[in-house]
Amino acid sequence: MLAASCFFYMFFKPEYILILIFTIVIDYIAGIYLEKIEDRAKKRRFLIMSIIANIGVLAVFKYYNFINDNITGVAHLFGFSNHMPSLKMILPIGLSFHTFQAMSYTIEVYRGNQKAEKHFGIYALYVMFYPQLVAGPIERPQNMIHQFHEKKLFTYDNAALGLNLIGYGLFKKLVVADRLGVYVDQVFGNVDAANTSSSVIALLFYYFQIYCDFSAYSDIARGTAKFMGFDLMENFNRPYLSKNISEYWRRWHISLSSWFSDYLYTPLATAKRDWGKWGIIFALVITFLIAGLWHGAGWNFVIFGFLQGIALSYEFLTKKLRKRISAKMPKAIYNGGSLLLAFSYWTFSLIFFRSPTFTIAGKLIHKIAQMNFHFNLPQLCGEKGPLNLVLSFMVILALTLRFLLPRDMRLKYPAVFLTVITLAIIILGKDVAAEFIYFQF
Amino acid sequence: MSQQNSSISSFKLFLTRIIVPVILAAAIAGWLFQRVFEKKVILSSEICGAYKVNRIINENDSNEVPIFGASMAQGGCIPHILGSDYFNYGLDGTGADVWLFFLKEECKKEKHTPLIIMNFSLDGLANSIGDISNYIYNADCPEVRELLGKHYKAYFSMPIIKYFGQYETYFRYFLNDKMNLTKYTDRGAAIEKNKMTKERFAQLVAERIKNKAVFENDAHLESEYTELFKNNPDRMFVIIITPYHSSYFTNFKNYPDAQDFLHRLGEMKNVRVFNFGKVNYPDSMFVNTTHLNYDGAVRFSKELKDSLATLNY
To answer: Which residues form the domain of A310?
Structure first.
């Protein structure tokens, strides 16, 4: 399994395996020492060393150019120049995912929640397990390491469930996400040609595109692992049903939000408990600024994170007030309104997630604010034709069919489901060779 | 041992309950769907590229006057204005290598009329396969496979999955052909019905002025064309250049080279050149700076008809 994982990773850029080996060796040794050493201060030093090694790799490969560009900008502002060269290299695939997974191991060993893994191969497999290596879910050692010690045998149930998940994941990626991407790319690539209608549609499509793209990868990862008898955590829990932004983060990219909650938000909030509610707000904003940066080295991601932090702070401060309002209103109206509001806010924040530059984000917001609903077919169709637009709405509607299937995807007649999904993919799928969006993170 | 046995029986169950039924059911349903789709959608829409490729290979109307080229031909020449025997084989996004393939197929045919219309671009002769969906239906034909070269994929010969990702393209052609939603269609021609807003057109003009236009011929293609014209003296090749918006010429690096090339071709016995490139058409007749809309296509087709009349065929 480890060899297969190495082969899988090296398929993208073979030399980058060395980065993985570096962090694996550091964290493996750190784990053993963290368990052995009794002295708390020494233990802490080992943990910090391991975290610095992991963050260091991230900083060099993912954030160096961003930091360097900003230093250059600030230096120019004050009449200085920055002679630090920019690095020309491709970001190692899934770096943020496996780095965070590796860090969760050392932190859990430090906290005493996980025994240090003595078998180097098994520890390496924990970091490199190929179904979730490049785009998560970001697993915890408590959930994964013991599974690698168990003997796995082929079972009909696992294989059937695994294929169901893979099939549904492929449907979401090839039929829904890639189709919506055609319209989204067109509008974001030429904002000047858009009007309010096409901008709003593009944003709505992007919401479903990114959800289907990322949750598809998680489904495929879970399905592949399940086929082999391994259980990965659920990463998405129908986020579109969220009634507020806090709930969004409990339903969207669960493995990342729970990672930040356990290892950053909770320690920060605890450390600042003297500040009362402002300590919570401080912890929320800092956590989401960093969560934004986790997604990419750019100010647009910082803004995305900041918007999340602000929304969560607002929800924290108005919790009691909202409870009082909800008690006085019909439940259906309050819940419906909350759902719509949360959906709109989340979708709006995605402008910064998707736009390659601030200028484009600004232009798109301006287009939406113009309220220009003048009917022009090429503009409305994002210059991609009415059939693409109609099919895009249809595939979004097709997602609702998921409610007809059991929540855990354990189907009575998997062969029927798999036949239908295979034909649907062949007939409705887009052949655009688009990578999974979250590969870039 | 018992664990191993249960694993083996589980695998057998998996094969008999899932893998075999799924493969069989998907293969039968997929094959049936494909047959119906090919007959009722792909081969029943004249503007579909796959239909045109199939028509040039497998059909022969001895009175037909073919029009070859890319989108400028497809959207600029209206067959019913030109005459009752014209058919527009223009394929969006294709280059001179594809037109040459069409020409070679055409020249193999026994015809009562020698006329062949070729739409050249002022960008010169370049290779471009265009949309791969044009060729999948005939992917097993040796000439098509040779044309596709490195673009050919093994799965183009596999039933059911050969059209993966392309069904929508064929269906779009079909809808446009039957319903004329966004395009006016006529014997292979597909002409844009929608008009650009003035603002959008102004943007396109500004973008065009910023970009440099260059005439550049692929030497190999140029010699192949010249050879083909020479080797088919019984055919009359009419080279046409459709009108361009004036902004196209603002930043044209070497227009005289394009003129020289057209002049060289025009000196051949069986080649005539009608260059409408610089004929001034109003903005309202363009979809963009290089392509005509319906109004423009109507005017151009009438003018082309008058020019063809001078040839006395």
So the answer is: 156-440
| A346 and A399 both lie in a single domain | yes
**Do A33 and A143 belong to one domain?**
yes
Q: Is the pLDDT of residue A80 over 90?
A: no
Residue A403 CB contacts under 8 Å (≥ 6 apart), including other chains:
none
Residue B229 has pLDDT above 80, yes or no: yes
Distance (Å, whole) CA A188 – CA A190: 5
Q: Can you give the C-alpha Rg of chain B in angstroms?
A: 23
Identify whether residues A192 and A265 lie together within a single domain.
Answer: yes
- A344 and A382 in a single domain? The answer is yes
Count of pairs with CB atoms under 8 A, one residue in A, one in B: 83
Question: For residues B41 and B171, is the Cβ–Cβ distance under 8 A?
Answer: yes
> Which residues of chain A neighbour B164 with C-beta distances below 8 Å?
425-426, 429, 431
Q: Do A414 and B33 touch (CB under 8 A)?
A: no
Chain segment A317-366, per-residue pLDDT in tens: 998 898 899 888 898 999 999 999 999 999 999 999 898 888 899 999 99
For residue B29, the chain A residues in CB contact (below 8 A) are 419, 423
Enter the ipTM: 0.78
User: pLDDT digits over B26-60, tens only?
Assistant: 999 999 999 999 999 999 999 999 999 999 999 88
A370 and A297 together in one domain: yes
Residues A160 and A184 in one domain: yes
Structure tokens at A228: 């082999």
- Overall number of domains in chain A: 2
- Residue A89, phi then psi, degrees to nearest 5: -150, 155
What residues of B are in contact with residue A154 (Cβ under 8 Å)? 7, 10-11, 14
Is some CB atom of chain B closer than 8 A to the CB atom of A190? no
Class of domain B46-131+181-309: alpha beta
Q: Where are the domains of chain B?
A: 46-131+181-309
Q: Using an 8 Å CB-CB cutoff, list chain B residues near A376.
A: 197
Q: Work out whether strand B86-88 and strand B65-68 pair parallel, antiparallel, or are unpaired.
A: parallel
Q: For the whole model, what pTM was predicted?
A: 0.84
Interface test with A, best of B1, B18, B170, B183 (most A CBs within 10 A): B18
Residues A396 and A422 in one domain: yes
Q: Let me know: does A236 contact A211? Beta carbons within 8 Å.
A: yes
